[in-house]
Amino acid sequence: MSTDAVEEIRGTAHGTAPVPLSVLDLVTVGAGRTATEALNTGVEIARLAESRGYHRYWVAEHHSMPGVASSSPAVILAYLAAHTDRIRLGSGGVMLPNHAPLVIAEQFGTLEAMAPGRVDLGLGRAPGTDGATAAALRRSDRLHEGADDFPQQLVELIRFLDDEFPDGHPYAKIHAVPGPVQATSPGGVQSPHRPPVWLLGSSGFSARLAATLGLPFAFAHHFSAQNTVPALDLYRENFRPSEVLDEPYALIGVSALATDDEKEARRQVLAAALNMVRLRTGRPGLVPTPEEAEAYAFNELERDFIDSWNANVIHGTPDAVRSGLDDLQKRTGADELMITANAHGGDVRLRSYELIADAYGLPTPT
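Request: output the structure for the sequence above.
Response:
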């Protein structure tokens, strides 16, 4: 296991942050805004994150959601690679059952060629959407088979990435390009890097699988907070050292929003929560404005959902958010915090990452 490979996974904490800080972006589209604006905001956030010492920037695969423009992570990552120089870029994650493993190996091999040593491949087994959309993506209504086959799909993908199918395997003469096969061709020279594979999860399944394979693990605390500690415990207790890692490494996704004023944080978080209410009740749309959320007549069930959802969103002034992140890291023992800032406006999200960086004394641009 090379030192470079370990550093690509582990990262470095800066300032007074207890662990490395990273960014998870859903490329959210607010009411009155366009997908172009959302993608350009993503570039601004990635550049800010790079200049301030955040370790990585991931985008998540979602489908059929008007307020989320991240349906094609590989395309977005290529765009970000062209506008950044150092920060790690990755998927948080690609929903593997939606795709042929060879396609993902080719896409991320291409990204690795564009940004050598900077690409992460995070994988999930959920569809990232509703059942009907998943069926359209997979051209099959047997969705349970995709989830059940995830371990086999994962092994197949890793073999394509490493070009290591055994002799006699039906895919032994198939090669993901760009990839290792180029180094074995006459006159070939191939990058020593290949994207580290991460497993993502919101329950114990991927935690146990990541542990068994000795892979890094990313847990979706931002929408499955009650399962965070049990899943991390399961991962650590069952971890087996591998060529990738000699000990467990787990990051958690955290919903956090810092603003200059506590009242403004509450307004922005309410709007993001209303967006979730609509999504959970089959009415997905653009992220509403704070003004629309304040005028919305929540019923009792919706209000209960809002209270429960926002209890796991760390929000307020920069000092309050820093304290909340510190407490969460201590409680979970997470090796890295990946922050997702959900708000209507891209300027609010950008400002939040800047305020959090300031609160922790992260490096300032030179």
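The two ends are 34 Å apart (CA to CA).
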